[in-house]
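Sample 1 of the test manifest.
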Amino acid sequence: MIPHVRSGRLRALAVSSVQRVAALPDVLTVAESGYPGFEADQWYGIVAPAGTSAAVVARLNAEINKALALAEVALQLSVEGATPMPTTPQAFGDLIKREIPRWAEVVKAGNVKAD
Amino acid sequence: MARTPARRRLLRRLEHAAKTTLYERSRLGARLNESGEWLLQHVKVALAEIRIGYEELARWRGKGEFLVTIGSLPMATDVLVPHAAARVLVMHPELHIGVKDGTYESLTRLLRNADVDFVVGPLRGDALAGDLEEEVLYVDRFVAVVRQGHPLLRGGRRASRIRGSARSPARRPMGCSSACSRRRACRCPPWRCARTARRWCARCCWPATMWRWLGYDPLKSFVPVAYVARVPNVLVVNAASPFRSLKDLVDAARAKPGLLTYSSGGNGSAAHITFEALKLKAKIFMATAPSPVRPP
């Protein structure tokens, strides 16, 4: 989408993140446009089958965070407009727990159906 | 039929054995009479049973291919049967699935002649013939769609008013009919005996309800390992559009509810849900327009 905005074929009205996006510094966030508190980012994470040992999870987390710290990885992610988010498995688990009820409400209210 | 003397002789012997006439002759030729049709049907069923017997023997020897023919009524042809077939073929690649579509009348005739193993589609309920059995797979809901401001939407009891005006029943069970006269609990693979066809349908039609649930619990089936990245969604309009800010868009949506539409990366996509969240927050209505292409 960003290349089309830059070339002038599309006009960006707002971004859904809390902060403005580095690639589109002039585009307001939804929160800034008059809806304070609005935040709706897509996020990506990695999970393992239930019952995976804590040691394996810790090792994977450490290695993935190491990879996320590499400049090439950050650059590749930024092309897609993504920001690396290295954190602990616990904090990531808390995020999933917070997100489910929040989006379930929107899905119900908007009667969203998957294909 | 009965064109050659040899065939005529054979038919006469068959009639003699059956102690009845099996076909009637006219100036236009010969055709089966009622007894003849009856005999043909039973012979076809017997031949199908023998074929299944051979398949069963081949399976015991660890080889062979198996043929299942599904009769598909129009309402099951688009989604239900292809999805079910694709799923079963993944589990059992040695299976050959044939699909015949047609009307209820034509397919039940094929079912009685063992030309199809079972029929999938809307059930008949009380109107079902005595020699067939039905099994409910799921209940399909009909949805009535009207424009914004349609008279049916006025007043309180919307659903009942719409239902009252619709001529077809609002709910219709979908399922399969099979010609199994006896129920037989059978631990063998479901296609191995014709009489357990009903078990086969119960299995193959799981996918019909599959897309209503994920098949896993996001919290219980996995342990979190690592948060990788977050990506904001961006709301864009055509550069030629008059909207220069989100406020312009919201104001226009408020001024004429239902006039504007939006699109996303597909139903249920993150962008779709994000825009639904924005609609809730801004208290506006905007219908989603299906996206003709998948975004990269």
